[in-house]
Amino acid sequence: MKKKITIIWEQGGNFGHYATLYNMGKAALALGAEVICIVPNPDAVPAHFRIAGIDYLQSPLIALPPPKSGKPTTPDNFASILWNIGFRDATYVRQALQAWRKLLDSIAPDAIIFDFSPFAQCAARTGKPWLTCAIGNSHALPALATPLPSIRFWSPSPASALLDLETKLIRHIQQAGFADAADTVQDVLRVDFQALISLQELDIYHPRDMHEYWGPLELPSGSNGVALNWRSASKETRIAGYLRAKHFDLPALAAALATLKAESHLAVPDAPVGMQGQVAANVHVHTQPVDFNIELPKADVVISHGGTGLVGPALMQGKAQLLLPSQMEQFAISRRLAEQKLAIVLDPKASAQYGAALQATIANPVLRQNLDQLRRKYANHPPRTSERVVARLWQLLEAR
Question: pTM above 0.85?
Answer without folding.
Answer: yes
